[in-house]
Here is the input.
Amino acid sequence: MDYYLFGIFLLTCCASGATGAVFNPGPWYTRLDRPSWTPPDWAFPVVWTSIYLLISFAGARVAVLEGNAYAMAFWAMQAGFATLWTPVFFGLRRLKGALLVMVPLWFAVLGATWSCFQLDFWAGVAFLPYLAWVSVAAALNFSVWRRNPNEAPIVPSEL
Here is the structure.
């Protein structure tokens, strides 16, 4: 594995994850009606840190392989949609809009997982926790949207 490539992928993950610091959940999220199976608050940074390390590992393994175009495209796609989801959900408080971001994110992670498996077994395995987590996140996003139908989004001029 190329450690410089790993660092580049990890830096990309850190940039994506930084949106969580800018648009943190705060009291607004705490007061929402959430399902009983919502993961505890401490789990989110632990899981995301683990996922970022794993998918950086996967990216570094696959980036040097012949025929990696789809894997790299899906890797980039998931990074883009993961970066977009946080400001839409927590920043603009658009629960349904965030769900519309979650759909292509889920497919991007599925595509990355599948295409990584085609090239390198361990890279594919490294994406499996992300696929599981984004599946839970999609279900949670959907549930929160359904449970909070009167939650008003923020108008960008109010930011």
